[in-house]
Amino acid sequence: MNRLSFTSVSSLPGTVQGAKARPPGGVGIVHFGPGAFHRAHQAAYVDDLLTHDPRWGIAAVSMRTRGTIDALSEQDGLYTLAIRDADPSLRVIGAHRRFLGPENATETRALLADPAVALVTTTVTEKGYCLAGDGTLDIGHPDIVHDLAGTLVPRSVVGWIVAGLAARRAAGTTPFVPMPCDNLASNGAKLHAALIAFAGRTDASLADWIAREVRVPSTMVDSITPASDAALLADIAATLGVEDRAAVQRESFAQWVIEDIGRPLGPDLASVGATITTDVGGYEKAKLRILNGAHSTLAYAGLLRGSSSVADAMRDPELAAFVDAMIARDIIPMLPPVQGLDIQAYRTAVLQRFRNPVIIHRLDQIAQDGSQKLPYRLGDTLIANRRAGRMPTHIVAAFGAWTAFLIRRSRSGQPIVDPAGDRLAILASEGSPADIVARLTDDGLGIPREVLEDAALMTALGRAATDAHDENWSSLFAG
Questions:
Q1: Which three-class secondary structure state does DSSP give residue 87?
Q2: CB 244 within 8 A of CB 5
Q3: How many CA atoms lie within 13 A of 23 on its CB side?
Q4: What is the C-alpha to C-alpha distance for residues 93 and 105, in angstroms, rounded to an integer?
Q5: How do residues 168-223 score in pLDDT, each as one tens digit?
Q6: d(CA 277, CA 260)
Q7: With a threshold of 0.85, does the pTM exceed it?
């Protein structure tokens, strides 16, 4: 079967959306981490922009492997975006123009130095920024140690961005705008601080220049994007009549909220639906705590109860009611009002999106990297409630489900997919659920360490972990 390409795109069925021809243009955006979410989300916005402003093509940079960029390159950068919803659709995206892997460091450096590149975006997951538990740059991280030693091929996205900014400063050209697009609270501020800290280790004047001249907007991105699997690729091939090894899928809902930094980003992303605001934090908290917090809760409790996907878990009436109550009672009361955001309507929309039967978002995928995700998705809500004198019983139960999940994985010999997976397996391998909660908290893994000083909360967490481990759901879900 032929591959999707500029040659074959003209033969696609008329129901497939996407421009079959586009005026030539340059690269204006460099993106690190061209995984499924980037291709399903940011690239779709840029694809819309290119129809009337062709300057902003994307150079896709993969720092570890060549699989995705080779698939894109072999298809002239084209791939299919499948919208999986009540009104499904297929669209060909053609926003990428360069495809760079670890072996293409010289080309990547040249692009970062090119004044035509105004925006450098990243989707490298939370762990990809090499941050310590307190959100600052982890100077001892192996990738940071490697990059600070001096190299033409950085291993970290922080190292790459600093290298590009150093080239801009040396040439006297305007710095590009680095823009993180991962689910990390205050991601712009944290990346900016990490860049300054990294540069300061080798060049204090460069660090001062980054602090003074470089603006890093915080962002909030949202669209449920299940991993591409063999079933998706087979369905796309059957519909298109050509093979597409880079196809992605997501729900129809997509949101991109970008901090107004007081200067142009380069591409006019607001013109294609992005929200530019001075209150990204409000949107971010609502999304991280409501959507992502509920997602993680569904993942751990759902897996314990035998569900395999989000939609499957939402068909469990007890679990669905518990998650709704968690949002209403524990999460929303701790959220500040956000101009332009109807929080109750957002709650309803999130739960409706979770019930979408066409999206198969696997719980085992969501359950990965809990030690990195839970401090932002559930931990911040836990602490906010306790500081307000409230006991957030549903959030406590969610942490109990995570602890029981770790125990089950560890003691059944199943891997725990997490940067701290080996350590988590050791901590959960023996002892009572309450003991394991204490160990996790003492290590600052998933549960904030300040909880150790809250005896009532530690007791509640231990009890919740025991209930989840014993599958005493009526007690755990009582709230």
A1: coil
A2: no
A3: 9
A4: 26
A5: 999 999 999 999 999 888 999 999 999 999 999 999 999 999 999 999 999 999 99
A6: 5
A7: no
| 313 Cβ neighbours under 8 A, 6+ residues apart | 298, 299, 301, 302, 305, 307, 319, 320, 354, 363
236: three-class secondary structure by DSSP: helix
Strand 27-32 to 57-61 pairing: parallel
Reference 224, options 112, 314, 135; nearest CA is: 314
User: To 5 degrees, how large is the angle CA 430–CA 432–CA 438?
Assistant: 95
φ, ψ for residue 455, nearest 5 deg: -60, -40
Tell me the residue type at 95.
A
Give the rounded distance of the alpha carbon of 313 from its chain centre.
21
Length of the chain: 479
Tell me the CA distances in angstroms from 174 to 56, 58, 197, 260, 401, one per residue in order: 17, 19, 21, 18, 49
HEC secondary structure over 418-457: CCCHHHHHHHCCCCCHHHHHHHHHHHCCCCCHHHHHCHHH
Instruction: State both tokens at 388.
Output: 């307000």
Per-residue pLDDT tens over the stretch 240-291? 999 999 999 999 999 999 999 999 999 999 999 999 999 998 998 899 899 9
